[in-house]
């Protein structure tokens, strides 16, 4: 296995498969050392002074109508981190939004979907020699890709605000932009981030942390409140609230219960059990159709591909790109008219994309059990009741 493929393999499932191997080797003592599941607490409200400071720091640094670049590497960039900000920002119509790749060709998203980016970083630089106003950095299969690190540094030097989504904070840190700064990241990668970059000052109980012209977020689902916060900073509260209503999100802010997200005993046992049942794994099809909502699609495909029991596969009747509601081009992973109806994931008819993840998690719970539902919610760092097994009401806030 060559080096990029080996790196990608170790990244699969947020590294949890590797932890399963450790658990099998260490045995019961290791499992017993893990804490039981925790009950999420209701975090206190964010002070108005803190909220105002966050919005002030995120104001457009260059243009009233900003240029926003979402960058990914071609071989593995996180699905929701890449697609959700794109779809929401395009809905908001607050600036020019471009989905970029470091090299020509499609971007293979992880754990599901494949897209045709708007441009390469070289093409973007030729079109925007003054640089972007904002650069969004999703989680990637490797933190040390020299091309993306050099480009992020260059954009920061031109005055861009750099936003690390989820474990994209590790990429931002590797570019040297988090040295001595306050930050956060996905719970699973926090220790790794702090070990490699000891001057980073972790801020607990916040989904969004802004320090100067650099922002970071907690896990995958945090890209929605982060994007709405950015919309508010650029275009005002009324515009952000209108987009939030369109998404089906009544309110959002930076509050977070960090203690609710950790490697617990139920989490480990479920990951182990689902991984070991390799004979009982499914490929579930998602039909790609023109005009599909990319936010709903990303959330659903991401969730169903994190069960260790299933993998979401996009399919279409014909080869070639299929344009989503807000203009990104999806490339089907399989071409064919039909898929076994019992193994098809139907995107919900619910018009509000924020509800799509709830529907997907409920479906996962019904198909594989509530422990697998909680396993997926924990990977997505999704606050609310899906992290527990006895109730079913969640919130993206």
Describe it:
With 397 residues, this protein is of the alpha/beta class. The chain folds into two domains: 164 residues, 3-Layer(aba) Sandwich (Rossmann fold); 200 residues, 3-Layer(aba) Sandwich (Rossmann fold). Helix content is 39%, strand content 16%. The protein has 15 helices and 17 strands. A seven-stranded mixed β-sheet has the order 6-3-1-7-8-12-11, with helices on both faces. Strand 15 and strand 16 form a beta hairpin. Helix 5 packs antiparallel against helix 13 and helix 14 packs across helix 15. The longest helix is centred in the first third of the chain and has 14 residues. The radius of gyration is 20 Å and the shape is globular. The N and C termini lie far apart (41 Å). The N terminus and C terminus are likely disordered. This is Transcriptional regulator. Keywords: Membrane, Transmembrane, Transmembrane helix.
- End-to-end separation in angstroms reads 41 Å
CATH C-level class of the largest domain? Alpha Beta
Count the beta strands: 17
Structural class: alpha/beta
Percent helix: 25-40%
CATH architectural category of the largest domain: 3-Layer(aba) Sandwich
Query: Nearest-angstrom radius of gyration?
Result: 20 Å
**Strand adjacency order, main sheet:** 6-3-1-7-8-12-11
Number of domains: 2
Could you state the CATH homologous superfamily of the largest domain? Class I glutamine amidotransferase (GATase) domain
Quick recap of the structure?
The chain is an alpha/beta fold and 397 residues long.
Task: Explain the layout of strands and helices.
Blueprint: H1 3-11, H2 16-26, H3 28-33, H4 48-57, E1 67-72, E2 77-78, H5 79-92, E3 96-101, E4 107-110, E5 114-116, E6 119-120, H6 121-127, E7 134-137, H7 146-157, E8 161-164, H8 168-174, E9 182-183, H9 190-196, E10 201-202, E11 208-211, E12 214-217, H10 223-235, H11 237-247, H12 265-276, E13 282-287, H13 294-304, E14 310-316, E15 322-323, E16 329-330, E17 334-335, H14 356-368, H15 370-379
Pfam family, one: DJ-1_PfpI
Keywords: Membrane, Transmembrane, Transmembrane helix
Domain DJ-1/PfpI: 70-232
């Amino acid at each position: 296995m060559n080096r990029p493929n080996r790196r990608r393999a170790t990244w699969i499932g947020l590294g949890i498969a590797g932890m399963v191997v450790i658990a099998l080797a260490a045995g019961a003592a290791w499992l017993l050392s893990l804490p039981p599941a925790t009950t999420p607490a209701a975090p206190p409200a964010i002070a108005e002074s803190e909220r105002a400071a966050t919005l002030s720091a995120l104001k457009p640094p260059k243009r009233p109508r900003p240029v926003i670049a979402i960058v990914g590497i071609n071989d593995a960039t996180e699905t929701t981190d890449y697609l959700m900000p794109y779809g929401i920002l395009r809905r908001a119509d607050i600036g020019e939004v471009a989905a970029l790749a470091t090299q020509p060709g499609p971007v293979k998203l992880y754990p599901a979907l494949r897209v045709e980016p708007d441009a390469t970083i070289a093409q973007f630089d030729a079109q925007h020699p003054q640089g972007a106003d904002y650069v969004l950095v999703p989680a990637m299969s490797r933190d040390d890709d020299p091309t993306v690190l050099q480009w992020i540094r260059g954009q920061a030097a031109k005055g861009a605000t750099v936003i690390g989504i989820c474990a994209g904070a590790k990429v931002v840190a590797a570019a040297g932009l988090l040295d001595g700064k306050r930050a956060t990241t996905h719970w699973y990668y926090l220790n790794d981030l702090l070990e490699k970059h000891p001057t980073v000052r972790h801020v607990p109980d916040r989904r969004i942390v802004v320090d100067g012209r650099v922002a970071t977020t907690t896990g995958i689902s945090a890209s929605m409140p982060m994007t709405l916060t950015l919309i508010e900073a650029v275009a005002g509260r009324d515009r952000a609230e209108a987009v939030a209503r369109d998404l089906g999100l009544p309110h959002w802010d930076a509050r977070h219960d960090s203690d609710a997200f950790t490697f617990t005993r139920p989490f480990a046992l479920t990951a182990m059990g689902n991984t070991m049942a390799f004979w009982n794994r499914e490929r579930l099809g998602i039909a790609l159709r023109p005009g599909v909502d990319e936010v709903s699609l990303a959330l659903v495909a991401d969730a169903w591909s994190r069960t260790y029991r299933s993998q979401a596969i996009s399919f279409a009747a014909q080869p070639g790109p299929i344009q989503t509601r807000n203009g990104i081009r999806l490339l089907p992973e399989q071409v064919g008219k039909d898929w076994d109806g019992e193994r098809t994931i139907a995107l919900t008819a619910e018009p509000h994309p924020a509800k799509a993840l709830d529907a997907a998690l409920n479906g996962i719970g019904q198909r594989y059990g509530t422990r697998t539902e909680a396993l997926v919610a924990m990977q997505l760092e999704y606050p609310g009741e899906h992290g527990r097994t006895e109730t079913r009401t969640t919130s993206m806030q």
